[in-house]
Amino acid sequence: MKLRMLGDSLRLRLTMRETYMIGEGQSVIESTSFSDSSVMRYVLSVEGDRVSAGMALNQGQHQLVIKVPAHLAAQWSQSTDVRLGGDELLDVDGLQILIEKDFDCVAPRSGDEHIDTFPNPSHTKC
What we know:
The protein has 2 helices and 8 strands. By secondary structure, it is mainly beta. It has one domain (2-101): Gyrase A, domain 2. It has a 4-stranded mixed sheet. The protein is globular and about 40 Å long.
């Protein structure tokens, strides 16, 4: 799961496996470790009856937790929709949240950017 933040907006991109996981009601957890031994964790959790986001304390560490309802996650994971919730951004009290499927890049890059990504519909077959 990739996380992008800018001001009051969050964007999560999920691999095929992660999309399947939330469709099955499982949480997706990612973390980034820093040289001072601190860890930034972010979680996409399937629970509740509405989309929500906030900070939570877990084992003495703060983590970003975004919650989505099970019915929304299940429907989206099985659909061809790119974004959870359709074309509208999810608004949680002024925080804009975009959760989308991660597609192959049109212009290939080195590294593991293409691991478990969805096939890009913009690619044409030779």
